[in-house]
């Protein structure tokens, strides 16, 4: 895959792990309408790739994951309700692609992660940040509302009360508070974020990929209040007919590392 270009969504690959970069470091990776569109397209394409096992999402550089949307762009693309509706569709398509991605997503968070950046991080399955990272959604100071599809992943992650605290106060807070609120999975030294995120991705990639996809699917389904069907209950046993299960069992008995093929 091609290397990132200025103001774009970059995507590189190393083995079974892809890295998606919000690549606009000169603006702390502030998101443009074009970047939202490209992000959705990139994640959708990666989700369809059966040879992939994990995706790391990060910002360009080491100063920020993303501070959210570029306010300087608002006058031309988000200055009226009609424009905002169109802009919102692009954001929500990207969010839907992240939410439905079949592969595990790891957010590698350096520095600032607020607003739309926080929304993207919340849609990842694991979030690794540095001790100097900062979080929040101070959009009340802009007179902006976080729409339903944007708020949903944060509410799902931390609950309604904490989500409202974040939105109503509009306060930016540190990594330790983010960990206590359940916004992040792990806090490490700032200079260890990249290595820890990569180690996390490698641990995920070493597991059976079909199992990771099933676990993501089941976790999403359990958030749906509808009763599970007989077919859904039955699907949880499909793994026993896979080559990966046979390989995993044989490797365990032989005390060797399994080699999974996603079959």
Q: What is the third-level CATH name, the topology of the largest domain?
A: 2-enoyl-CoA Hydratase, Chain A, domain 1
The CATH architecture of the largest domain can be named as Alpha-Beta Complex
Please state the oligomeric state of the protein chains shown.
single chain
Return the average pLDDT rounded to an integer: 94
- What is Rg? 19 Å
Instruction: Work out the helix count.
Output: 11
Overview of this protein structure:
The chain has 263 residues and is α/β, with parallel strands linked by helices. The chain folds into two domains: 8-205, 2-enoyl-CoA Hydratase, Chain A, domain 1 (Alpha-Beta Complex), CATH 3.90.226; 208-254, no CATH class. The protein is 46% helix and 17% strand. A six-stranded mixed beta sheet has the order 1-2-3-5-7-10, with helices on both faces. The protein has a four-stranded mixed beta sheet with strand order 4-6-8-9. A hairpin with a 2-residue loop joins strand 1 (8-14) and strand 2 (17-23). The chain is globular and about 60 Å long. Mean pLDDT is 94; it is low at 1-6.
């Amino acid at each position: 895959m091609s290397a990132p270009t200025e103001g774009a969504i970059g995507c590189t690959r190393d083995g079974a792990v892809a890295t998606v970069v919000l690549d606009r470091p000169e603006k702390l990776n502030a998101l443009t309408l074009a970047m939202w569109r490209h992000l959705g397209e990139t994640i959708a394409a990666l989700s369809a790739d059966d040879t992939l096992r994990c995706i790391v999402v990060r910002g360009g550089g080491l100063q920020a994951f993303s501070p959210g949307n570029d306010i300087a762009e608002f006058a031309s693309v988000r200055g009226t309700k009609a424009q905002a509706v169109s802009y919102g569709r692009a954001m929500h398509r990207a969010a839907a692609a992240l939410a439905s991605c079949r592969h595990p997503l790891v957010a590698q968070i350096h520095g600032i992660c607020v607003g739309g950046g926080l929304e993207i991080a919340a849609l990842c399955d694991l979030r690794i940040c540095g001790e100097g990272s900062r979080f929040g959604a101070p959009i009340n100071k802009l007179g902006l509302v976080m729409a339903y599809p944007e708020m949903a992943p944060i509410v799902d992650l931390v609950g309604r009360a904490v989500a409202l605290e974040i939105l109503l106060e509009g306060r930016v807070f540190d990594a330790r508070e983010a960990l206590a609120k359940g916004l992040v999975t792990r806090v490490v030294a700032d200079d260890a974020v990249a290595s820890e995120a990569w180690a996390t991705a490698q641990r995920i990639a070493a597991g059976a990929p079909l199992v990771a996809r099933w676990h993501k699917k089941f976790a999403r389904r359990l958030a749906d209040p509808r009763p599970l069907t007989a077919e859904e209950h039955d699907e949880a046993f499909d793994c026993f007919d896979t080559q990966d299960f046979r390989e995993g069992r044989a490797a365990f008995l032989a005390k060797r590392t399994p080699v999974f093929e996603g079959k």
